[in-house]
Amino acid sequence: MRYNGVSWVSPSWGQLVRDHSEGQSMAQRPWRRTGMKPPAPAAVGVLLALALLALIHLPPPPHHSLLPQPALSPPGPPREVAAPLSGGQASRRRLPVPRTHLRQEQAPGQSRRQQGVESNTPPWLSADDLQKMWLLSRGQVVSKTRVPAHGQVMRVGLRAVGDAKGDVSQASPEDDCQDGRCGLIKRPGDLYEVLAFHLDRVLGLNRSLPAVARRFSSRLLPYSYTDGAPRPIIWWAPDLQHLEDANNDQNSCALGWLQYQEMLRPRRPMLVARDAPCSSIPHSEWSRLALFDFLLQVHDRLDRYCCGFQPDPSEPCVEEMLHEKCRNPAELVLVHILVRRSAPSRLVFIDNAGRPQHPEEKLNFRLLQGIDSFPAAAVATLQTGRLQNLLLESLRLDRELWESQGGTEGLRPLLRTIDRRAQILLRHIQQHNLTVFEDSPC
Question: How far apart are CA 155 and CA 235, in angstroms?
Fold first, then answer.
């Protein structure tokens, strides 16, 4: 498993108070310069009443921050904006006409402002996303725990600034994590995971965990974590379901390649479907995963053996002698196939750094094998030709990532690569006469 603060711009209450006091002082100076007597108290009272009436009818002032300091989410699974799955029942149709704009699904009867989301934030980020992003980027590190056998990966407990429970000496790592106040700090080279999170939200998949870039300075952390380099920190989901097998604990269910391909067959026997591993995960989830992994060229989940392309000798799959197993498909297994106990039919995408530099001539089409339909909303977004601009709009919220990567100019080459892969995927869908689906309402 390969499961950093972002300088969110927020208004200073101290500055607001000082500005208000200075404004009162300036308001008295014209009377002194002109030698006029100040108005009678009664007149002042009338003027103040009129001013208050005018203020009441003014619209609320715009907020200064795209990420205000929200209240933390309550314990338990987060509320998600996307509508829940309906057991895999979906209507299919051919490739849709490109949409000219995106619309985020909302909870019935609630506007985005009622959900606590600012009107100038991208519509694909929910209030819950923003809360977790703020905690990851600004939360005080109050505890740390090494993740066994995963090198430079550390789980940290986080507390909101000013939280009454922010006493480091009383921090309990397990309690913090069970309450949803933990993050996983990864290597600087895994910053691509932050982009992957924004891609997931832009496409409306909503299967990856919130992630931000952050520079750490906490004395609790080793020097290598506080040397000034930005690192990705990913929200720790407390209810990920793991197998009890110590040798296969990075899965919620054990699934081999041949079993996976059998599951994808449209007319599989119902008895096999019910008894097979991961049978609670509907076909539509695998379609989302395949689309996401192809755009990012994440091989670890579906093709950790690099069977879908000719790997370089320096590839881990070659160094660990995994590639040799491609000769026997029965030995191939899937990894990082995870769900949450609170939503066992929804996959959770982790370890999404992928391969930003993977050459186009070696794109791994094996990731798409067996998939005959794709989510309509995601495909429509790819068709608009606006993917790069949508990602830029979303990534601007992460000030640390934005500045460390050189802003628009620095991010453009990477976004062009993803956009190019998107066009190749669309061509693949058309050439193979594949369909798109929309989940049926509950």
Answer: 10
Q: Which pLDDT score is estimated for 251?
A: 85
Strands (DSSP E) contained in 312-396 are 338-340, 343-348, 373-375
Bridge partners of 235? 183
Whether residue 120 contacts residue 405, with contact meaning beta carbons closer than 8 Å, is answered with: no
Q: Are 173 and 157 in contact (CB under 8 A)?
A: yes
Q: Which residue(s) pair with 213 in the sheet? A: 232
Helix (H) or strand (E) holding 25: helix 13-34
Q: Which of 106-115, 140-149, 294-303 has the lowest mean pLDDT?
A: 106-115
- One-letter identity of residue 422: A
Pairwise CA distance, residues 392 & 410, whole Å: 11
**Would you give the DSSP letter of residue 331?**
G
Average pLDDT, the chain: 79
Q: Supply the pTM of this predicted model.
A: 0.75
Distance (Å, whole) CA 68 – CA 116: 10
CA-based angle 353:3:346, to the nearest 5? 90
First-to-last C-alpha distance (Å) of the chain: 34
Residues paired with 155 in a beta bridge: 145, 184
Residue 58 predicted with pLDDT over 70: no
